């Protein structure tokens, strides 16, 4: 197995899950110089695959490989097809399939559950997190996997509301302190581009560093 397999799951579309997964892949490939595979296992949007194709068509290929495995055998495919080829695998699990998340968690070393700090987006958070932990327990790997909730699309003009949402989640679930802010010029405009700017990768870099420290 690769040294690190990171499962990124979300509750619904539009929360920045795929963007976060892509930026994590950029950090490992651009800043860390690792061999990275991005697995687009999202059965509904395939944002990662579209991103890769747009970058290729612009003659700015991404610094990592990508595969589309949007089915409940994604964990088996990572285990079977990546050893010796990659140092890091990032799995974009989507938000529509509990089976895909469970399969990814069976082989991952870190599970991220993504949400925005908005009430509408955190309704299913506890259930999704519990499903990930149950998958790890069923696979007998609970002690081998770290898991946390992470905020994306954080609007700093709503600091009081953001802190209250964080307080409510942290009372029940582990959370990363690092988060991705609401920066359209960085994240929304990144679609289809090869992100190499260290400044644009700073938030994701700090997030990866926190994940590494926890592991």
Class, according to the CATH hierarchy?
Alpha Beta
N-to-C terminal Cα separation, in Å? 17 Å
Total separate domains: 1
In helices, the fraction of residues equals 25-40%
Under CATH, the topology is which? Answer: Rossmann fold
Helix and strand run:
EHEHEHEHEHEHH
Rounded mean pLDDT is 91
CATH superfamily: P-loop containing nucleotide triphosphate hydrolases
Radius of gyration: 16 Å
Portion in strands: 15-25%
Strand order of the largest sheet: 3-2-4-1-5-6
Structural class: alpha/beta
Number of helices: 7
Q: How does CATH name the architecture?
A: 3-Layer(aba) Sandwich
Number of E-type strands: 6
Please describe the biggest sheet, giving its number of strands, its sense, and whether it closes into a barrel.
6 strands, parallel
Q: Looking at the structure, what is the overall shape?
A: globular
In the predicted model, the low-confidence regions spanning at least 5 consecutive residues are none
Outline the structure in words.
By secondary structure, this protein is an alpha/beta fold. The protein has one domain: 3-Layer(aba) Sandwich (Rossmann fold), CATH 3.40.50.300. It is 38% helix and 16% strand. Helix 2 links the parallel strand 2 and strand 3 (65-68). The longest helix has 15 residues, at 17-31. The chain is globular, with a radius of gyration of 16 Å.
Notable features of this structure?
215 residues, globular, 16% strand, single chain, six-stranded parallel sheet, 38% helix, alpha/beta, 7 helices, Rossmann fold
